[in-house]
């Protein structure tokens, strides 16, 4: 199919002109000038070489072709109205959230609370690495994204920083062959198969940085797409994993996983970010969800400064 040649503005101007039977009446209903209406209709006639109207004493009369066209023009106008209403209402009835896997459990109750308050809103939740989420947000695929420190920053994003001082810990199956009685040295940890998130995730970046700053290269055993797979593989003695402590708390309490004590400082991400697209006006559901986030995190919720720089482990 070639390029679509029909100009929607032209056909709608013809439709209103045919209904009003005057250029002034059509212009008033359309909210444009009379010369614009004239230009649109004459342009339609010239483009297809068909006479559509006659003008007698300032009154518009349709030709035979114009009379036949009016039904199609009316259908096209009605479909345009329905299409516009769909597009306007879609964002009012839907909320698309992108969230990094390591943060999902921290937002489950908040998302459930939002659904209780707004049961008619359809919530779509997409779990992905932070880098992918930022790219998708820039491509208008989400209303809001929640991710770790951004590996792909853009001034097209409106960002909020949320302080989040949760530790990351190494975990393994209680039956895993490691000396549980003493803190593990990092050199020893580097020798074990490491279950690590896929490319673009902040969990992966943090893990690799922590080994690198100690002059070590970890033994990457398995790359996984989400933390549930990482936990399951760790339970199966497939290796060790570095995960946020809140995400493995239940498994530790049930003795399905055990925390490996490392020999030095705790690892902390320090913050995560809520992001929206600056060029897109927030939909009512997105504004409401952002308001709930602000309320939940209260003093830990901050506007991101313009001079923001990624944390050292992202560089």
Description:
This protein is α/β, with parallel strands linked by helices and 315 residues long. It folds into three domains: 8-91, Orthogonal Bundle (Arc Repressor Mutant, subunit A), CATH 1.10.10; 93-164 and 270-314, 3-Layer(aba) Sandwich (D-Maltodextrin-Binding Protein, domain 2), CATH 3.40.190.10; 165-269, D-Maltodextrin-Binding Protein, domain 2, CATH 3.40.190. It is 44% helix and 23% strand. It contains eleven helices and twelve strands. Strands 3, 4, 5, 6, 7, 8, 9, 10, 11 and 12 form a ten-stranded mixed sheet that branches.
Name the descriptors.
315 residues; alpha/beta; Arc Repressor Mutant, subunit A; D-Maltodextrin-Binding Protein, domain 2; 3 domains; two-stranded antiparallel ribbon; 11 helices
SSE topology sketch:
Elements: H1 8-20, H2 23-30, H3 34-48, E1 53-56, E2 59-62, H4 64-93, E3 94-99, H5 104-117, E4 122-127, H6 130-138, E5 144-147, E6 157-172, H7 186-191, E7 193-197, H8 202-212, E8 219-224, H9 227-235, E9 240-244, H10 245-253, E10 258-260, E11 267-277, H11 284-297, E12 301-303
Parallel strand pairs: 3-4, 3-5, 7-8, 7-9
Antiparallel strand pairs: 1-2, 5-11, 6-9, 6-10, 6-11, 6-12
Helix pairs in contact: 1-2, 1-3, 1-4, 2-3
The SSE string, one letter per element, is HHHEEHEHEHEEHEHEHEHEEHE
Shape: elongated
Report strand %: 15-25%
User: What's the CATH topology name of the largest domain?
Assistant: D-Maltodextrin-Binding Protein, domain 2
Q: Give average pLDDT, whole number.
A: 88
Number of strand segments: 12
Instruction: From the alpha carbons, calculate the radius of gyration and give it in angstroms.
Output: 30 Å
What is the helical fraction, as a range of percent?
40-55%
Q: What is the number of independent domains? A: 3
Name of the CATH superfamily of the largest domain = Periplasmic binding protein-like II
Distance between the termini: 48 Å
Architecture of the largest domain, according to CATH?
3-Layer(aba) Sandwich
Instruction: Let me know the largest β-sheet.
Output: 10 strands, mixed
Q: Give the C-level CATH assignment of the largest domain.
A: Alpha Beta
Determine the structural class based on helices, strands and strand pairing: alpha/beta
Uncertain runs are: none
Total helical elements: 11
């Amino acid at each position: 199919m070639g390029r679509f040649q029909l100009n929607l503005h032209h056909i709608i101007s013809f439709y209103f002109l045919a209904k009003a039977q005057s250029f002034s009446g059509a212009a008033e209903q359309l909210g444009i000038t009379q010369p614009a209406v004239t230009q649109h209709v004459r342009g339609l006639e010239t483009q297809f070489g068909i006479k559509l109207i006659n003008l007698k004493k300032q009154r518009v009369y349709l030709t035979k072709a114009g009379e036949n066209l009016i039904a199609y023009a009316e259908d096209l106008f009605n479909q345009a109205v329905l299409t516009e209403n769909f597009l306007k209402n879609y964002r009012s009835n839907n909320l698309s959230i992108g969230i990094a896997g390591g943060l999902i459990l921290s937002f489950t109750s908040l998302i459930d609370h939002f659904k209780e308050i707004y049961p008619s809103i359809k919530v779509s939740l997409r779990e992905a690495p932070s880098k992918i989420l930022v790219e998708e947000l820039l491509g208008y695929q989400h209303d809001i994204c929640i991710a770790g420190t951004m590996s792909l920053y853009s001034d097209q994003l409106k960002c909020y920083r949320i302080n989040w001082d949760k530790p990351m810990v190494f975990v393994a199956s209680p039956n895993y062959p490691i000396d549980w009685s003493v803190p593990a040295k990092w050199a020893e940890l580097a020798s074990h198969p490491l279950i690590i998130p896929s490319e673009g995730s902040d969990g992966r970046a943090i893990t690799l940085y922590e080994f690198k700053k100690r002059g070590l290269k970890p033994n990457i055993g398995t790359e996984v797409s989400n933390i549930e797979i990482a936990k399951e593989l760790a339970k199966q003695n497939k290796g060790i994993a570095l995960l946020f402590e809140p995400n493995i708390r239940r498994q530790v309490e049930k003795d399905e996983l055990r925390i490996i004590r490392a020999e030095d400082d705790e690892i902390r991400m320090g913050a995560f970010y809520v992001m929206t697209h600056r060029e897109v006006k927030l939909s009512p559901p997105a504004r409401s969800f952002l308001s709930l986030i602000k309320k939940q995190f209260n003093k830990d919720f901050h506007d991101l400064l313009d001079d923001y720089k990624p944390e050292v482990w992202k560089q």
